[in-house]
Amino acid sequence: MKKTFLIATLMLSSLFISCNSDDDNKSEQKVLDPIIGEWIQTNFTTNLIINGEEGPTNVEDLEDCEGNDFILNINEDGSFKSGKIENLDTGECDFQLGSWKNIGDGKYEFSGTSFTTFILTPEFVGNSFKLETESTDEDGTQLSRITYSKK
Predict the structure, then answer these.
(1) What keywords would UniProt list here (predicted)?
(2) Under CATH, which architecture does the 37-150 domain have?
């Protein structure tokens, strides 16, 4: 009787130990957000919206204002740094710095020192992501499509 009780106790305690170990491993695993990393701009097109229809496609420059590849660094700590863009107020070539956060449902909020907060919904495909944005100014509405690839 004592042997049966001892064997049953050992079997039950081994179940608890293995379950406890699995739980520990799951809590230690950290999954990085797919947007984190160093990205290079590989495609950038714009279209003016005319009477509700897309106008001709313009292929935009893939370089920053100093002629270098346009790089976007999105960091795990919630900060980002983009390639240099000409500051329209000063005419200088400046990095765009700011913060980002995943707000759920595949949407990301970006805030910066030189632009207002905006929300993007990237489409991840393999080692790249695509963005589609629409902006309106005095010239009309413009649709932009940008692709970034992991560097």
Answers:
(1) Signal
(2) Beta Barrel (2.40)
Would the pTM of this model clear 0.90, i.e. be above it?
no
Handedness of CA 55, 61, 65, 69 (dihedral sign): positive
Residue labelled with tokens 């010239």 = 139
Query: Using an 8 Å Cβ cutoff, are 134 and 37 in contact?
Result: no
Report the 3 state secondary structure along 86-138: ECCCCCCEEEEEEEEEEEECCEEEEEECCCCCEEECCEEECCEEEEEEEEEEC
Tokens representing 107 are 């949407």
Question: What's 33's DSSP letter?
Answer: P
> Could you give the CA distance from residue 116 to residue 122 in angstroms, rounded to a whole number?
18
